[in-house]
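Sequence and fold
=================
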Amino acid sequence: MSWLVSDSLGATSGLGSRYFTVANAADAQPPAPLHRRQAASLDTAPLSDADVTVQRDAGARRRLRASDAGERELPIAPTERLELALNTASKGCEGAWAGYLVKAGVLTDLPVGASLDPAGTFYWQPGPGFAGQFPLVFVRTDCQGIEQRLPVFVTIQTRVR
């Protein structure tokens, strides 16, 4: 959750933010510890051809195109809200998505405040202290257990050009 204030002249400033988890089900359990899997273990997984759409703050949705290497790059401003929809055009079983932050060649938990639902929608609004590049990899496992990878490099730019 974050707070923004605007004055009568249209100047806007952030007041702060907090992260919290809501677990309101009787059987709610904390997530299982992430097994420290090497990112290289995904190198043989084919690149996903999922159509990725991005929505930033309250802006319009747009397609996030992949480079020739199959990677997607997304620069954002500090505290900008981000929503990525990882859409597959497959018929029948849709499979499930998982997401990771790659640190020193190891798959780790997504950044603080980020979430990904199994259907493939990623949400994140980085807090005020976040800056730099965040190499993310999303992995789709289909109904036959076959994995596909979808790398996205989010760069939080501290200066607007």
Remarks:
- Residues 28-34 have pLDDT under 50 and may be disordered.
- The first strand starts at residue 2 and ends at 6.
- Residues 34-156 form a domain with the Immunoglobulin-like fold (CATH 2.60.40.10).
- The chain has one domain: 34-156.
